[in-house]
Amino acid sequence: MTKNHEPHFWNNARQHLIRYGGKFENLIIERAKGSFIYDADGRPILDFTSGQMSAVLGHCHPDISHVIAEYSRNLDHLFSGMLSRPVVDLATALTATLPKGLDKAIFLSTGAESNEAAIRMAKLVTGKYEVVSFAQSWHGMTGAAASATYSAGRKGVGPSAVGSFAIPTPFPYRPRFEKNGVYDWAAELDYAFDLVDRQSTGNLAAFIAEPILSSGGIIDLPIGYLAALKQKCHEREMLLILDEAQTGVGRTGLMYAFERDDVVPDILTLSKTLGAGLPLAATITSADIEEKAHERGYLFYTTHVSDPLPAAVGLKVLEIVKRDRLVEQARIMGERLEAGLQSLQQRYECIGDIRGRGLLLGIEIVKDRASKEADNDRGEAITRECMNLGLSMNVVQLPGMGGVFRIAPPLTVSEEEIDLGINLLGKAIEKTYKR
Questions:
Q1: Is 113 a catalytic residue?
Q2: Catalytic residue among 39, 113, 220, 246
Q3: CB atoms within 10 A of CB 347
Q4: Rounded to 5 degrees, what angle do the CA atoms 195, 196, 198 make?
Q5: Scanning 92, 215, 329, 405, which has the fewest C-beta atoms within 10 Å of its C-beta?
Q6: Of residues 39, 210, 244, 353, which has the active-site annotation?
Q7: Which residue among 243, 261, 266, 380 is the active-site one?
Q8: What are the φ/ψ torsions at residue 198 (nearest 5 degrees)?
Q9: 85: helix, coil or strand?
């Protein structure tokens, strides 16, 4: 009899928890270490999503545990009008990893919160209120962030913020615009902004974008697109906000995904990876934009802004990433992971596309490669089989979104763990063919 089926636990869960999306795994997770989580039976489950795409150092990293213990004893939380050394030290260390023009930071708790802070700042500084994002975006489930989120969660909750616009996500695997048989993303972008201009009341404040749309299906913006997007913003006196919740702090084989494109955003938001699994987020901008916001009365006063404990964790995360050369590690392990996925693609027709960068890769499950029709049913079946085999590798399990797997092991993942994950995924796919 498995301990995961404990009646008292599940009865309390059914009676007292609000369901917030998808289904809970039929497991009781008791502990986690490194690249593995362990259920009530002590069964190891290889975590190929870094928890909620966050635990970049693996679970319960000893250095992080030490910092948490130290600050839980001595300095965990403060009145938001007080400053501590970890907050100032983190701001100094974080901005040192960024190009000039990203010089000032505010530290918050979640990705949605950091995007709220960024959008609020952009509106205040520009004096305008219209915000544009991609049609497959995910920026959070609160207010302005939810209004800029189009991949899910828009129905049944009333109107979004006035001035919310979406443009098509540039998607080479399923191109909408082609020229001589080649995807013409530039024409698509021109057309999209023509539509935005026609709908705008002249109050375009910002464009918020993920360099790789993760919840939208691991869609990497084509090379050159981000620079062209920033030019579109510049022409309209909009600010460009980049949301690197899932791509920042080494995940893509670069410290920040935007570095590949040699584009510096006006505002950058970080979360998930910065806290390595703890609730820590940041909004970073230029000294000039911060000064204008301050002059105009910028207000983003929250209960946990500038809390010392998570700031100390973030500071240690940056130290470990640099010390252990984890950016380079993400690139090397990402190449190994991609090669393994390509070997599976050669064996299984259902793998239509492999995309992403570093240790943020996606595979899309299709009915056949000619039509590229998504196969959500098979995707959900593979997800179930993976979990049965001891592999957690799909965090998007909302209806109709199970056909693209987001694979993001910790940056500390080993070669053996990469190979194990590929092996288990292959076995899971094989089982769906034998039904």
A1: no
A2: 246
A3: 11
A4: 65
A5: 92
A6: 210
A7: 243
A8: -70, -30
A9: helix
The confidence score (pLDDT) of residue 1 equals 81
Residues 209-234 pLDDT 10s? 999 999 889 999 999 999 999 999 99
> Hey, what are 321's tokens?
């990433």
Question: Do residues 283 and 114 lie in contact, with contact meaning Cβ atoms separated by under 8 Å?
Answer: yes
Catalytic annotation on 178? Answer: no
- The Cα 71–Cα 121 span in angstroms is 31
Q: Is 176 a catalytic residue?
A: no
Choose the catalytic residue: 113, 316, 406, 417.
406
Question: Of residues 232, 272, 316, 378, which has the active-site annotation?
Answer: 272
Beta-ladder partners of 47: 392
Question: What is the model's pLDDT at position 21?
Answer: 84
In the structure encoding, which two tokens stand for residue 105, read together? 């930071």
Determine the angle formed by the axes of helices 308-323 and 85-96, rounding to 10 degrees.
40
Helices (H), 175-302: 185-199, 225-235, 287-295
Beta-strand pair 212-213/219-220:
antiparallel
CB within 8 A of 355, min separation 6: which ones? 173, 218, 219, 220, 361, 362, 364
Is 246 considered catalytic here? yes
Contacts of 336 (CB under 8 A, 6+ apart): 415, 418, 419
Is the per-residue pLDDT at 399 higher than 60? no
Q: Is 372 labeled as catalytic in the residue annotation?
A: no
Q: Which residue among the candidates 138, 307, 355, 357 is catalytic per the annotation?
A: 138
Half-sphere exposure of 97 (CA within 13 A, CB side): 25
Q: For this structure, is 406 an active site residue?
A: yes
- What is the tens place of the pLDDT at every residue in 270-314? 999 999 999 999 999 999 999 999 999 999 999 999 999 999 999
